[in-house]
Specification:
The chain has 120 residues and is mainly α. The protein contains five helices and two strands. Strand 1 and strand 2 form a beta hairpin.
């Protein structure tokens, strides 16, 4: 089943407030996430496409957070007397938690991504 890379980009923009130019620069990361999820798909139902797009976006977001961890140590926002600061490691932890949650919610439409010894 083919997952739309453009749909994954749009989902990432909506979820993370990243801009399109940043995502264009990291297109290989998104392509990799889409390819990874496509290989796991065990269903051919179009009804599952929104969940597959979300899973690919969550995986791409986690990969992007790992890449950005070294590039940006702290992200902050100030508006008047209110300020908000979040470290890159917090962003990685959040992205990982979201990816793992999305992966767990998708077990009915994807194959297990693991190695198991059945018998010798």
């Amino acid at each position: 089943m083919k997952i739309s890379t453009q749909a994954v980009k749009e989902q990432l923009i909506a979820l993370t407030e990243r801009d399109e130019s940043e995502l264009e620069a990291k297109a290989a990361v998104i392509d990799s996430a889409v390819s990874f999820v496509e290989k796991l798909v065990k269903t051919e139902s179009e009804d599952d496409m929104p969940r597959l797009i979300m899973l690919a976006a969550a995986r791409a977001n986690y990969s992007l957070a790992l890449l950005n961890r070294d590039e940006s140590g702290i992200s902050s926002f100030t508006a008047g007397d209110v300020s908000f600061t979040k470290s890159a490691s917090d962003m990685v932890d959040s992205a990982r938690a979201f990816y793992e949650s999305t992966l767990g919610e998708s077990t009915d439409i994807i194959r297990e991504n693991g190695f198991v010894f059945r018998t010798v």
